Each structure stands twice: as C-alpha cells, then as structure tokens.
Amino acid sequence: MNAHLEPTVMVIFGAAGDLTWRKLVPALYDLYLDRRLPERFAIVGVARREIDDAGFRQKLKEGVDLFSRRGRTDEATWNEFASRLSYFAGDFTAAETGSLLGRRLEEFDHQWNSRAARVFYLAIPPGLVEAAARHLESLGICRDCTRDRVVVEKPFGRDLASARELNGLLTSLFAETQIYRIDHYLGKETVQNILAFRFANSLFEPIWNRRYIDHVQLTVAETVGVEERGGYYDQAGALRDMVQNHLLQILCLVAMEPPVSFAADEVRNKKVDVLRAIRPIRPEEVHRVAVRGQYGGGVVAGKGVPAYREERNMPPESATETFAALKLYIDNWRWQGVPFYIRTGKRLRAKVSEVTILFRPAPHQLFPLAAVESWQPNRLVLRIQPEEGIVTRIQAKQPGTRLLLRPVDMRFSYHEAFRVSPPEAYETLLLDVIRGDATLFMRADQVESAWSVISPVLDTWEAAPPADFPDYAAGSWGPETADLLIAQEGHSWIQPDIRPEEGEGKVP
Ligand code: BG6
Predict the structure, then answer these.
(1) CB of residue 424 inside a 6 A radius of ligand 1
(2) Less Cβ crowding at N or C end of the chain, within 10 Å?
(3) pTM, rounded to two decimals
(4) pLDDT by residue (tens digit) across 69-81?
C-alpha cells in the first residue's frame, strides 16, 4: 500500500447503484491490487437498500469478478480488501443516518490516530445532488478544505442555467478546490496522452495550427443502444450526454495552447480558453452547423437490434437524438478558419473513439499526374479506444520501376509498445481524488462554458421537433445529413479502420 498517502475514508452515496458496482469498486479493487491506495483506507457505502455488510460485500465481489480488468478475484486478496468495506442502510438526508455516519468517521480518526481525509462520492441521480450536498455541509463532516472532497458525477445540470445554479449551490457550501466534477473520458489513458503527444514532443507543435492543418474530425461512436438507462437518456439525448462533456473536453485537449506547467489550474485555464474561443452558434444557423439523428432498427455486429423508439419504456414518438454532429470554429490566432467536426452516436457501426487531424496538401505538386492518382494529404489519427494508438498516413513510393505514390500508414500501438493493459479511467480519477489532484476534473467555469457552446443548438432543437426520426439504421455511421454537414466545405468523414470484432469488417 502507499504509505505516503494520508489515511482516507471514501463514502459512496448511492452505493447500491450500478456505478458503484460496475465502475467504482472494481477500480478501487484494481488500485488495491497495484498497492496504490493509502495504507489506512476504508470505503463506506450508503444507500436506501436494506442489506448488511456481508450482503454489500458479496454484491460488490460479483461486480469486481465481472468488471475488473484483472479478471476474477482471488479469495484471500478479496477478503483483505473486503475488510475495508462497510455499509449503511438509510436515507442519507435523514438526520439519523447523518449522525451515524459522522460517528463512523470519527471512529476511523480515532482508530488511525489522525484526522483522515474524507472523499464523499455522490453516485446518485442528479435530482438528489442538491439535497445530499446541503445535508453533507450541515453535518459539518466535510469542512476541512484541504482534506475533504466531494465528487459529483455528470450530468452536471441539464442546461446552462441549471449548471450555474448547481455550481452556485456547491460553491456556497464547499470551496471550489473541494469539488471534483468527474468526466470519465479525462481519465482515459489515451485522452491524457493527447497532452503527452502534443507537449512532450517537439515534432508536432510547430505544425499544429491553421497553416498546416486543414480540418479536424472527432468521432466517438458506440454500438450500444440505451441499455437500461432509457429513462435518463430520453431526457438527455446525445448532445447533453456526450457532446457537452466528453467530446468538448477532448476537443479542448487537441486545440489548447501549451500550459506553463502541468499544475491543475494551468491546464484548466488553457482548456477553458478553447471553450470560450468557440464561435457562438447563432440560432438561425443551427440547421447548417448541427445535425441530429435517431436510430431505427438494424444490425449491429451481426445481431438484429430494435429502433430507439422500440426500446423498453421508450415513448413511441420520442424526439430525443441518439446522434449529434457539429461543425465548430475556434476563433483564435492558432485555429482561425479551421473547421472542427465532431460527431457521436449510439448504435453505430463500431465502438471507436478517435481524433483525426487532416493536414493541408503539399504546397507544390512536382510528381507527374500518373504517379499521384491515389494521393491523399497527410493525416494523423489519435485512437482513443479500443486499440489505443497513433496512425500517421504518409505518401510513399510504391516499390517498382514506375514512379507511383501510395498512401501508407505508420502505426504506433500502445499495447505493443508498453505490453501492459492501461488502467481504467476510474482508477486514474479515483486515485487523483484521493491524492487531491484536480487536473483531470472540470472546474465550474469549464462546465458552464461547455453548456454555452451547445445551448443555442439545444434550444433550437427543442423548439422544433424533428420530422424525420428515425433517420439512420442501427449499424450504420449515422444519418446522411451528417455527410451533408461536412460536405459543405468539400470534406467527408474519415470512417475509422475497424477490426471485425469491433463492427462488421474493415471499412475502407
Ligand atoms: C457516458 C454516457 O458518460 O459515457 C453513456 O452517459 C456512454 O451514454 C458512455 O455510453 C461511454 O463511455 P465509454 O467509456 O464506454 O466510451
């Protein structure tokens, strides 16, 4: 275990829910296996469900067996880990649960002979965050600004006004440095690697601008539908669920200026600069720069799947978008005039997230026409998932007596280079919370700026429900209107290279 970390208690509200079972505890267990957790560490679950410590541990063990990247638990290690897990059944906002929890926390301090750091993880539905935060503050158990932290999951508000309100409330109760707004994409190894790639290599930065880059594409495609989360998703849609947070955060990392250091606020300042520089979308131009779609039935990875409107408990007339694409411009010195196309959707052809940087053509074409028939400008693909890596497409002479140029790929695979499986996003982020490092978390102004970017689109879409839903087949790359969006500037989507198990075969 890590003897340098302060004793810590992590209190999870909503501990009987899916997030705790699927993500949080498997991640904590993997950190435990890697001996990254503090020596004195405990997890206290709080939820309404009536189970005892043993039942709680058993349920979590099943989750770890299913979802840990290390596979099934071994009995002895699990038992050691499980001895640090305990459970409180009760409504957290009830006075009695609060005072019992307060006493439990004091017992840890007493037992460890030191005031432990406290992490309060709100793994609860967004509608309960306000009450939980108020109650937490009133109990006085989260008042040490340097040691106590509150972790808030997305969705952070449902529009700019509600996000502001929530930020206002949280910052009135806690110091900003105590609030960790989580976006799990920022914990993904390859998302962090965008920073390493850009700022630890001197090769790319000189060409990372409008002089050399023609446009940028960002695709976050999923094969899954709404799964068990229909109730939430139908109220959210792709723009709120994915674009406001994950896609805009990735865009920030691709487009930001170099920070002075890796200190949390240095990095976050540069990211928020990007969001502020995104050209505001005027309501009258929404139809030209934003596209929405909803999946109909189709075939994904060889299996027939139902239309969105036929998913369980879904309103048959639902107007919620399951696909969104935007064309954005960043009005600053570096990116003036360079389109950034971003798209995301459910039930697409493959699960893949990648950023493609398309460079301008070589300024002078000196080869004979016959030699450059299959010529393509350079491109660089930052593959975030699955198969994390970087692919650079260059032109090469095809071997032979004739002069013929062909595009070829130089491939770098994280897996081949490092031969280890990267930590799950939640491992990185939970450890950062325990260490008190907020670099990979969103600050209040970032969240609000991201809502400002998409607000005009949200408002316009809400005011005019779509007439043509469903407009893409499950298993396709989305609606045709997304192709038209990008074709306005003579561009076309670069469809990801997919392995057969990721989708339905290799796409040219
Ligand atoms: C979540 C969204 O934030 O991210 C989900 O709410 C989505 O709808 C998920 O499926 C995708 O995450 P990942 O890590 O599987 O790409």
Answers:
(1) no
(2) C
(3) 0.92
(4) 888 999 999 999 9
